[in-house]
Amino acid sequence: MVKSSKSNQPMKYSGFGLIQNHDINSLSRKITREADLFKVWHLGIPDINERKWMLCINGLVDRPIELSLEDLKAFPQTSVMAFHECAGNPLHPKVPQRRVGNVVWKGVRLADLFSMVGVKEEACFVISKGIDQGIYNQKYYSEYEKDLPLAKALNPNVLIALEINGEPLTVERGGPVRLVVPGCYGTNSTKWLTHLIVSDARSKSDFTTKYLLTGKQLTDNQKSHRCGL
């Protein structure tokens, strides 16, 4: 059971949880301080025992694997500076989001892990799952789930991130481990990552089929950043 850090029940929200400490006009630094970067979550913030946390990679792979946090730390680490931007709230698509920052992520290239497990020829998508659970738009979800085209997931800048700006990821930032997909909206960078499933079909999760900004709600620039939506 994933629980709130303040109670014995999963944290619940009717929409996004949001922490935004500074106005976007105050973000004058090249690298946004972690404390100044917005935090958004769809469901509750989970309690995670880092010693028991595992990342499972399975599906259309030759060698399914489970990796601990210490296992990931033993891999070669890569740093990537990238914009981190929120797509906005699909429950209120006309409200400007104005949430963006530029940070340095550090972690393991997803392409390196996929090279190790061997991705099957018929694979087309990568489904990512986070351990967070709670209520979104009056419906309970036991996990958060998104997907990416395999070609995007194999980009060398896509990371299984352990750090932001030289510091370990906090639980509010999606730690101990999160997916980071530069060039795509933050909704695709699954927090509290526990599963990567290589598939020949897209995820059927509401977060890939229902809760997304579409059509006239998106500008041309926004459409170019959808990535798996």
From TrEMBL:
Q: Which GO terms describe its biological process?
A: sulfur compound metabolic process
Parts forming coiled coils: none
InterPro entries per record: Mopterin_OxRdtase_euk (IPR008335), OxRdtase_Mopterin-bd_dom (IPR000572), OxRdtase_Mopterin-bd_sf (IPR036374)
Stored Gene3D superfamilies: Oxidoreductase, molybdopterin-binding domain
Stretches that traverse the bilayer: none
- Specify the superkingdom: Bacteria
Q: Taking every annotated instance into account, which residue ranges of this chain make up the domain Oxidoreductase molybdopterin-binding?
A: 42-205
Q: What is this protein called?
A: Oxidoreductase molybdopterin-binding domain-containing protein
Give the organism, scientific name: Bacillus glycinifermentans
Taxonomic classification, please? Bacteria, Bacillati, Bacillota, Bacilli, Bacillales
